[in-house]
């Protein structure tokens, strides 16, 4: 009985051991699965972190350091096409890193196109290729790392695979890195450099380099009150400075309406009469920009060392730009040589290569017509003033004018002409000094700015019929003026080509008489006689009509339209067959 129980107890222990082994195996399997899961998560974590590292490394390499502004001007000496003719579809392709630009086609070898490319630290090779349709003719490479930043360079770059070269104006600016030559925080003004700069433009060194007129320094601190160009109510503004064909720009400040650029720029002044153009843009994707405000400052109006806010204007530079009274904070300093500047003013003005052609606009057309009308009215007022002296409307004024005329005719010489012009300038200067006006157009600009919104509202309220009527009236005035000038020119031409032989021979007789009179009688006595006749006409012959003898003579000579109207037609109409075969008509006759 005991043996039996022992066997039973032994079998129970064996069953317990088997259950423990099964339980241990299941736990070991669970631990293994858990460990594999943890290892898998850890592997995925490391793999994900490596991808993040690679993407951050790739993103870091995609952050550009500067903006390369390229102005494609022209080319010369380009090769001929395969058929031996000139390239009629020539265009230039540019590549900097992953960015590309293709110019327009031109057969004149002149493009005048400006564009921007982003410069990366790891790739500073600008690739240029010449194409004609789908065929590449030549390539060239420019290493941008050798060029000075924040300066405009003119480059003639020859092609490697073909004859010819292309002219570019290249500027590297908009540097995002700190402690650059344009960073205002890292800039420290050196008194020695400032002294050397001023000594370079002293009057006694005026003949050393006539092209180097002066030096301009512009500090751009920031702006405020800009308009919101993005959907979120912010903008990505950057500032562009242009002096002639030199162009520099700041970095872009993202998501702000009060950017702080803190940049300092320098320009070589080639003409002291140039104008500094400062424009603020909003940066968008795909190199697109949106206008935020503009400011133009003549170099002669710059006050050195004055830090102040300047109001930004709209594209037409007539009224305030959009936003909350947008302003830009600047400080400028210009040093120049007066004698070099005078020599440069008497030479041809530098052509600005990039200029936007104004499209036809009704308001611009009306404004230009009014400007021309004001000049014509000014000349007519001066002529009426002189005529009033001849008419003795004011006896005292006519007596003074008559006395001055006699004195000028008796004692005057050729230097009298610039003296009269100098007296006119002196008169305007005295008026300006007495009235205290610093600018003759300041009052006009103020009135224009105040009434600009009212004019826009009135313009919107006008109907299409009223607008067309206004255009018709101005167009009619321009048409009649152009017609009168053309008629006057054609009458002068017809005086010389015997369109009216009698009047031409009369002109010949008058010219011969003028030659004899001018040969024997001095010009001063002739002018004295003419003045006496003009001033005494109103007294001796009060009922005569004032006239101009030359215009009276030309009014008798017909113009081309009148000659065409005077032409007689044949008594019988000419058929189409007779016009096509005039020989048959001659034979029949």
UniProtKB/TrEMBL annotation:
Residues 48-163, 199-314 form the C2 domain. The keyword Transmembrane helix applies. The keyword Transmembrane applies. It is found in: Membrane. CDD domains: C2B_MCTP_PRT, C2C_MCTP_PRT. GO terms for biological process: regulation of neurotransmitter secretion. It is a multi-pass membrane protein. Residues 568-589 are annotated as: Disordered. This is C2 domain-containing protein. It comes from Stomoxys calcitrans (Stable fly).
């Amino acid at each position: 009985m005991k043996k039996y129980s022992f066997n039973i107890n032994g079998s129970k222990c064996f069953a317990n051991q088997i259950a423990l082994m099964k339980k241990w195996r299941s736990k070991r399997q669970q631990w293994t699965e858990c460990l594999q899961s943890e290892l898998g998560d850890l592997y995925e974590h490391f793999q994900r972190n490596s991808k993040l590292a690679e993407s951050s490394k790739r993103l870091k390499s995609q952050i550009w350091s500067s903006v390369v502004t390229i102005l494609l001007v022209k080319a010369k000496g380009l090769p001929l096409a395969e058929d031996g003719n000139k390239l009629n579809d020539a265009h230039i392709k540019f590549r900097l890193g992953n960015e590309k630009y293709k110019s327009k086609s031109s057969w004149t070898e002149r493009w005048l196109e400006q564009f921007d490319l982003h410069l990366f630290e790891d790739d500073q090779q600008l690739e240029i290729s010449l194409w004609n349709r789908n065929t590449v003719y030549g390539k060239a490479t420019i290493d941008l790392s050798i060029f000075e930043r924040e300066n405009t360079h003119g480059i003639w770059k020859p092609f490697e695979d073909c004859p010819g070269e292309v002219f570019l104006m290249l500027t590297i600016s908009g540097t995002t890195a700190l402690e650059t030559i344009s960073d205002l925080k890292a800039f420290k003004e050196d008194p020695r450099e400032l002294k050397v700069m001023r000594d370079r433009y002293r009057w006694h060194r005026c003949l050393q380099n006539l092209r180097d007129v002066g030096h301009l320094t512009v500090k751009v601190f920031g702006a405020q009150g800009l308009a919101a160009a993005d959907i979120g109510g912010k903008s990505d503004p950057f500032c562009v400075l242009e002096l002639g064909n030199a162009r520099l720009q700041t970095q872009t400040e993202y998501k702000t309406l009060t950017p702080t650029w803190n940049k300092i720029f320098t320009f070589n002044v080639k003409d002291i009469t140039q104008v500094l153009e400062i424009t603020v843009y909003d940066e968008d994707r795909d190199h697109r920009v949106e206008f935020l405000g503009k400011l133009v400052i003549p170099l002669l109006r710059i006050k050195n060392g004055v830090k102040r806010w300047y109001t930004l204007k709209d594209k037409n530079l007539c009224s305030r730009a959009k936003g909350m009274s947008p302003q830009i904070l600047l400080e400028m300093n210009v040093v120049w040589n007066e004698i070099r500047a005078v020599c440069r003013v008497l030479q041809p003005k530098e052509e600005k290569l990039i200029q936007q052609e104004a499209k036809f606009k009704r308001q611009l057309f009306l404004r230009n017509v009014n400007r021309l009308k004001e000049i014509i009215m000014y000349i007519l007022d001066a002529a009426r003033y002189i005529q009033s002296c001849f008419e003795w409307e004011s006896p005292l004024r006519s007596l003074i004018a008559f006395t001055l005329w006699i004195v000028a005719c008796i004692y005057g010489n050729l230097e009298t002409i610039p003296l009269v012009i100098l007296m006119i300038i002196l008169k305007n200067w005295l008026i300006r000094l007495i009235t205290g006006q610093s600018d003759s157009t300041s009052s006009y600009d103020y009135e224009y700015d105040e009434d600009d919104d009212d004019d826009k509202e009135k313009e919107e309220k006008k109907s299409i019929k009223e607008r067309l009527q206004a255009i018709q009236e101005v167009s009619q005035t321009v048409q009649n003026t152009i017609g009168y000038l053309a008629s006057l020119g054609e009458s002068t031409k017809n005086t010389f080509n015997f369109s009216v032989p009698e009047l031409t021979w009369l002109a010949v007789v008058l010219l011969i008489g003028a030659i004899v009179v001018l040969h024997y009688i001095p010009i001063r006595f002739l002018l004295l006689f003419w003045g006496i006749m003009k001033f005494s006409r109103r007294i001796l012959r009060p009922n005569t009509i004032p006239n101009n003898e030359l215009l009276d003579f030309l009014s008798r000579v017909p113009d081309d339209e009148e000659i065409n109207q005077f032409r007689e037609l044949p008594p019988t109409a000419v058929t189409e067959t007779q016009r096509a075969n005039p020989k048959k008509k001659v034979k029949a006759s």
